[in-house]
UniProtKB/TrEMBL annotation:
PROSITE patterns: CHEW. Pfam families: CheW. This is Chemotaxis signal transduction protein. Residues 11-149 form the CheW-like domain. SUPFAM superfamilies: CheW-like. Coiled coil: none annotated. It comes from Magnetospirillum gryphiswaldense. It comes from the Bacteria. GO terms for biological process: chemotaxis; signal transduction.
Length: 171
């Protein structure tokens, strides 16, 4: 059954990007900003799921690997890669992706519901189709499970404690 995307109560726009030979998208309401591929710090004990830490205006943002989160084969990211800085319940988190195609009007697509429990780690919300172009619409709140969120929070707390040591240097 096809329906107009706007009729489903989704936002008005979708940020589309490429990863592993697929086109994906998130509702623009979840994306705080798009950052070109940048140098990422790789501190000790960095989890394999994390690509590194991004210094975004003095704030350390943990950048996760989109390929691994979606169960895709490990990708090699080049200069055309991007980091989506995503809005979360407990702050911002980065997502390393391939090239960002842009922001598209959601009403230009036909919305095709899918069984989200059996594809892309259960994160697929729908397929959006426009003139043969298919975008896999992902559900950002479902990208990380409860245990993954707890581990990410623990890692970010350790990182914040390390950064605080720089501020507490004796004068």
């Amino acid at each position: 059954m096809m329906m107009d995307a706007a009729a489903k109560g989704d936002g008005l726009a979708v940020v589309t990007f490429r990863l592993g030979g697929h086109s994906f998208g998130f509702g623009a309401e979840w994306v705080a900003e798009v950052v070109p591929n940048a140098w990422l710090a790789r501190p000790p004990a960095l989890p394999a799921m994390a690509a590194g830490l991004l210094d975004l205006g003095g704030t350390a943002i943990t950048v996760l690997r989109g390929d691994l989160l979606l169960g895709l084969p490990e990708q090699s990211f080049g200069l055309d890669a991007s980091i989506l800085v995503m809005k979360g319940q407990k702050g911002r988190v980065g997502l390393l992706t391939g090239r960002v195609d842009g922001v598209r009007d959601l009403q230009a697509f036909t919305y095709q519901p899918v069984d989200g429990d059996h594809n892309f780690q259960g994160c697929l919300r729908a397929q959006l189709v426009s003139d043969g172009f298919v975008v896999h619409l992902l559900d950002w709140p479902r990208m990380l499970g409860a245990e993954e969120q707890a581990r990410l929070a623990e890692f970010e707390d350790r990182t914040a404690q390390r950064l605080a040591l720089w501020d507490d240097a004796p004068s």
